[in-house]
Amino acid sequence: MKTATLVLTLGLLAAPALAAPGHSGGHGSHGGGHYDGHAAALGEPGDPKAKARTISIVMSDEMRFSPETVTVKRGETIRFVVKNNGQLRHEMTLGTMDELVEHAKVMEQHPDMEHDDPNAVTVEPGQSKTILWTFTKAGSFDYGCLVPGHMPAGMKGRIIVR
Length: 162
Ligand SMILES: [Cu+2]
Hints:
The protein has helices spanning 2-19, 97-109, and strands at residues 43-45, 53-60, 64-66, 69-72, 77-84, 90-95, 120-123, 128-135, 139-144, 156-161. The chain has 162 residues and is α+β, with helices and mostly antiparallel strands. The protein has a single domain, classed as Immunoglobulin-like, CATH 2.60.40. It is globular and about 35 Å long. The site of copper (II) ion has 5 residues, from loops.
């Protein structure tokens, strides 16, 4: 009993430290300017066999995601079904805002870049794609459309992991 209580307490103490934005660097090693899509700060690709909750996200040419805020439980696997209701190509990338801003700079130089990373999808008009992701860390994370100009115009959202 005593041991269990202690572990639980330590777990609670450790949680805020995990949520802190300790991620820095690590982008210097990939060749050819291709972003490797790691988003380790917020979790890991979901196991297709795991139980997952579906959250529908709609993209529009008004440069908005709907919804713009998503709340999940730590450890939960989410199947994002991402639908592009616009006439333009959009994309959805999960990450920390630092990662998204850095990746957006790469996208500006390579506007036709497409994504099949576990944490990102490129969605043509009228199409839907899926991101399966397990959120292993508590905190506040972001998603954005990294097509040049879209995120600065407001095409972004927030994921709260409790
Ligand atoms: Cu977009």
